[in-house]
Amino acid sequence: MLQVKNIHKKYGSLEVLKGIDLSIGAGEVVSIVGASGAGKSTLLHILGTLDTADSGEVMFDDKNIAKMNAADMARFRNRHIGFIFQFHNLLPEFTAVENVCLPGFLAGRPEKEVRQKAEELLTMLNLSHRFEHKPSEMSGGEQQRTAVARALINSPKIIFADEPSGNLDSKNAQELHDIFFRLRSEFNQTFVIVTHNEQLATMADRTLVMKDGQIVQEQQF
Ligand SMILES: Nc1ncnc2c1ncn2[C@@H]1O[C@H](COP(=O)(O)OP(=O)(O)OP(=O)(O)O)[C@@H](O)[C@H]1O
Q1: Which side of the chain, N or C, has fewer Cβ within a 10 Å radius?
Q2: What strand order describes the sheet that includes 55-60?
Q3: Sorting pLDDT into bands at 50, 70 and 90, what band is 88?
Q4: Which amino acid residue places its CA nearest to atom 2 of ligand 1?
């Protein structure tokens, strides 16, 4: 599904990615670990089309992301990619349902269909009692589960998660990790997850270890 060839990225004179190759198949859960500053988030942002590489290729199925213009890339991102960040990034003025709906509306899908899917997703994630709550009226775990529902609203090919449980206590973290693997077994959902959480890293099918801008090791479980 995702093929990456020889990606390089510099910030000024700092070489952050030094030739990354990887490939990720549909339904795989891949974790990326490594010391702070190794380049994990930079790689995830490039894979997720939030940033561009200086050179190299990012292919989603047969589409070369590097060759797309900004508008096509934004459309592709909205339709096919989901994101979950360490901090939920929900809009504070909107309810849980509205936050989840937003990427669906941006994709131009019918309002009724999007709202129904948002409610289904929130119900699946045990948030049926929180539809009309704003982020400040929900717990950290509930906010992060709402962010998962938002990531799923357009049925993305792949979800990129950057330290998704970094801000959660161990019980909520465990619950979130279980959700990822449930989504994989029920919907064949693909995930690439940057994490410092050892439990999550080792639950993945494969773990890529990054050091100084390179993948130095791959562990298979
Ligand atoms: N926009 C930017 N401008 C300049 N330097 C950057 C930028 N983004 C990242 N860097 C630098 O690139 C290097 C890699 O950063 P990155 O966030 O990818 O590391 P990381 O492995 O995700 O670290 P962490 O585990 O701490 O999140 C760091 O030295 C960082 O300071």
Answers
A1: C
A2: 14-24, 2-11, 55-60, 63-64
A3: confident
A4: 11
